[in-house]
Structure formats: C-alpha cells, structure tokens
Design brief:
This protein is α/β, with parallel strands linked by helices and about 500 residues long. The chain has two domains: about 80 residues, no CATH class; about 375 residues, Alkaline Phosphatase, subunit A (3-Layer(aba) Sandwich). It is built from 14 helices and 13 strands. The strands form three sheets. Strands 1, 4, 5, 6, 7, 8, 11, 12 and 13 form a nine-stranded mixed β-sheet that branches. A two-stranded antiparallel sheet has the order 2-3. Strands 9-10 form a two-stranded antiparallel ribbon. The longest helix is centred in the last third of the chain and has 25 residues. The radius of gyration is 24 Å and the shape is globular.
C-alpha cells in the first residue's frame, strides 16, 4: 500500500501527473503559465478574502494603467515647480528665510539609508540649485507645470496631482518599494498589480488580468511585478509588442501544427480529467485545467490586442507613432489602451529603460530629452481614453520612485545635477473616481519635505485598490504578516 500525504498530495516519492504536465507540457514557463493559473479569478472562492469576487458595486475603476518612469524624475522641474529655487540659487539652506529642511524632524523620520549615516552624504546637499526650465500655470485652476510638458499641460484639467508623496529608500531599490510598499531591508511583499489581480475577477477570459509592457526594467526590479506568496498566477505577464510573438514561450513551436497542438491539449485535458476524479476537491487541479484552456485562447487574443493595424492614422499620430522620439512610448501606451478596452484589469507600463531619469549630471539635457519622449504619448492616452468614454472607468497612475534634491549634487565634482530625494515628490492620477484639475498636498518652499503627514507609497496603493472596489485590509493571506504601513490609507481628498 502506497502512503499518501495527508494534504492530498501525490504518493510519497512520486511526481503527480498533473504537476508533471503543468510544469513540462506545452512549453509555457514562468510568468506565462503563472498568469494562466486561476485565470478567471474564482478558483478559491472559499477564501476569507474578497479574492474570487468581482469588484464591489462602489468600484469606480474597472482597470488601471500604471505608468512608471524609472530613475526618479525631478519633481521641481516637472509637476511641482519651485520659484524659490531660482530666487535663492547658490545659497545654502541656512541662508534662506525658510527653515533648514535638513534640521527638520521629518528628515530622519522619512529617511532610511542602507549605508551608515556617517558615510552617507545623499539628500543633504546644502547649495540650492535653480530650476533648469521655466514653468507656467495651466488650466482652470492655474496648476503649475514645467515647460518640458507642453502637451500634458493642455490636459491639466483632467489630471489630479499629489505633491506630498514620500518614501524611505534613497537608492533605486525604491523602484521596488513604490510597487510593493517595502524597503529593501524588509521582507518583500506582493506588488500592487498582483494584489489587484488577486482580488478581482476577470473581465475577459482570453487575456491575463495583469499585463506588463516594457518591463521589468532590470533583473533587480522583478519584485515590481511579482506576486511572491500569492502564487505565480498573480504575477504580471510581460508582453512584447510583436504581434507575431507577443507572449514569450507562449506560442506553439514552428514544427507543431495547430491540429497537433489541439490534440495535445485534448490529451492533457483527458489526463487531468482522470486526476479530477481521483481528487474531486482539488482546486489547484481545476485551475490548471482552466489554465490550459486559457493558454489556447490567448494565442489568438493577445496578438489581436496589440495589433495596431485597425487603428486610424489620427490615432497613430495622437500617440506619436509617426515620430521616432515618441514611437516606443506611444506604442506601449496605445497597447495599454487596447488591453484595458478588452478587459485587462491592470496594465503596468515602463515607458523607458531602467534608471534613465536618474539625472545626477546634465539634468537639463537629460530631462528635456526624456520629457519629449513621454509628454505627447501620455497626453494622447488621456485624450484617447476620454474620447472613447474609457476615462470614466479607467484609472491612470503616473509615477516614479522618488524626486530629486533641491540642492546641487556635488559628488565627483558635480555641477549640473540633482541626487535622489525620497522626502517629497509628485505623482498624478487621472480618470475613474478622482478629481480633475486638482492639486492635493504640497512640499515646502524649496521642494524638500512633503508637508503634513504626506503620503507614503502604500497610500497610493490603498487609493488605487479602493477605486477598484477592494478593501486593502481584506487582502491578506493566513500566516503572512503585513505591517500596518503595508495597508496604506486612502487619499480621501483626491476622490471625486
């Protein structure tokens, strides 16, 4: 008699047939297979969490487009202009009429360095560096935006700015922190996209619920799309924008005909069906059966979703597909619109490569060039969503990992850049459930500290999940400890 595990696992020393087929069949590996598991969002309805249910009736957003600019754009030269930097340029903080921000208790409260404090010079450069670009008030409420964003400035009445964000990591692990809520010295948590995926049902059984375009931007930023203890089925699925091969490892081999693949699916389905008789209560097995069905459907649905052939010339121009400097960003944002239009819940877009906004030197040259690649396509996305009546049900989030120092970075003889700045920075949102043409919160006169309590990055998570009809405090896994800060608090003032 063969001993069986009390948890209904395979006989001791043997590999379960369903595990073998799932792990080795069809060539679907890693994230691709992960996203297919539990694809319809209702595979564990017995859980005490809201997982497996559709968004609550009060949900404002059916989908989220999360745009992340890697490297840390300068808040004072984008969406939080500070004329006092020009007025007091060249002075040290203690020579201005303002409180010295380095002496504020907020500095240590919101600053957690990995190197020892005595050798870490970041964030304390005392010589004020002037703004490297002009700015103007725009829109009905005169919201200040720098001149590097001329097209987005025309959409300012659709945007909701949060100017008092803060985080704690002063290095680029903050890219993971803004997506997971945890400093790199702490246990990793699932990403915001994974939580949304876990908590919501599907709007399209032929597509993943959490898709990633242009990322993750580096091997070290995988946590920004990962699901960890939620299980691989909730991780983001990276897609390429090649309609011939959009899902890595997700296409049948060239030597295999469609008929051969269909028969292979049928065989796998029969074998899994036999296992289902043996283990009738096995939710994982039922998930895998549906996963293979989804995998087959995705082979047709994904290429269609990212094929722009049916888009008009006007739409191509709106997203900047007709210009070399905006083409890549425009393609990713147009694909994001097409995906949410087809029911994808969370689309995480990386417009640019890892760390490119990191302007320790030549900030003016770097930001002027990069803003030109993002400004038009992003404004085009907002306009396109609005004209298609999708902005009322889609939430757009535009963010980065931290801001940049009001002071001049002087390391290595620096003369024209700013260092990382976690103490205060700006993000914006647009669309479903948020105010339009609105500014929430502020930094001090020099753009150093987020004033008041400010908003740690998980407040952004809580707000996004709330707008999707989810309660962050209900999204828990038994045996997994979440800190109070992990839940965040909804930014009520930004809600429409």
């Amino acid at each position: 008699m063969t001993w069986k595990s009390p948890c209904n696992g395979p006989p001791c020393g043997r590999i379960a047939r369903r595990s073998f087929l799932a792990d080795y069949g069809m060539g679907f590996t890693g994230l691709a297979l992960g996203a297919m598991l539990a694809g319809d969002g209702r595979l564990r309805a017995s859980d005490s969490t809201p997982h497996g249910t559709l968004a609550a009736p009060q949900a404002k957003a059916k989908s989220v487009i999360w745009i992340f600019l890697s490297g840390g754009y300068s808040h004072v030269e984008t969406f939080d202009p500070k004329p006092a930097l020009n007025e007091h340029a060249g002075k040290t903080f203690d020579k201005t009429p303002f409180e010295n921000p380095v002496l504020s208790p907020l500095h240590k409260k919101r600053f957690r360095s990995v190197p020892a404090e005595e050798i870490n010079v970041r964030d304390v450069y005392p010589i004020i560096y002037p703004m490297q670009v002009g700015w103007k008030p725009h829109g009905a409420n005169g919201i200040g935006i720098s001149d590097w964003w001329p097209q987005l400035a025309q959409r300012v009445d659709d945007l909701c700015f949060v100017r008092n964000m803060w985080t704690t990591d002063n290095d680029h692990a903050a890219e993971n922190q803004i997506h997971t809520g945890r400093h790199r010295l702490d246990e990793v948590q699932p990403s915001i996209g994974a939580w949304a995926n876990y908590g919501l049902g599907s709007l399209n059984d032929n597509l993943p619920k959490f898709v990633v375009l242009g990322g993750p931007t580096s091997t070290v930023t995988r946590p920004s799309i990962d699901s960890y203890y939620l299980g691989p089925q909730y991780s983001g699925v990276p897609l390429t924008l090649d309609p011939a091969n959009p899902l890595p490892f997700g296409q049948r081999h060239a030597s295999q005909t469609a008929d051969m693949q269909e028969r292979e699916f049928e065989l796998i389905g029969r074998l899994n069906g036999l296992s289902a008789v043996e283990y009738p209560e096995d939710e994982e097995l039922r998930a895998r059966i549906r996963a293979y069905e989804l995998a087959f459907r995705m082979q047709a649905a994904v290429p269609e979703a990212i094929d722009f052939a049916d888009e008009s010339a006007e739409t191509h121009q709106l997203y900047g597909l007709d210009r070399e400097e905006t083409k890549v960003v425009g393609q990713r944002l147009l694909a994001a619109r097409r995906l949410v239009e087809r029911g994808v819940r969370f689309v995480q877009v990386f417009p640019s490569a890892y760390g490119v906004w990191d302007s320790h030197q030549k900030l003016k040259e770097n930001h002027a060039r990069l803003c030109a690649t993002v400004d038009g396509p992003t404004a085009g996305l907002i306009a396109d969503l609005k004209q298609r009546c999708l902005l009322d049900e889609t939430l757009v989030v535009f963010c980065t990992e931290f801001g940049r120092t009001p002071g001049l970075e002087q390391r290595a003889g620096g003369i024209d850049g700013r260092d990382h700045h976690p103490n205060g920075f700006t993000i914006w949102m647009a669309g479903a459930g948020v105010k339009r043409g609105y500014v929430h919160g502020e930094t001090d006169e020099l753009g150093y500290h987020a004033l008041g309590e400010g908003h740690y990055v998980t407040d952004l998570h809580a707000t996004v999940l709330h707008l999707m009809g989810l309660n962050p405090r209900s999204l828990e896994i038994p045996g997994r400890k979440r800190l109070e800060i992990d839940y965040g608090r909804v930014m009520d003032d930004v809600l429409a």
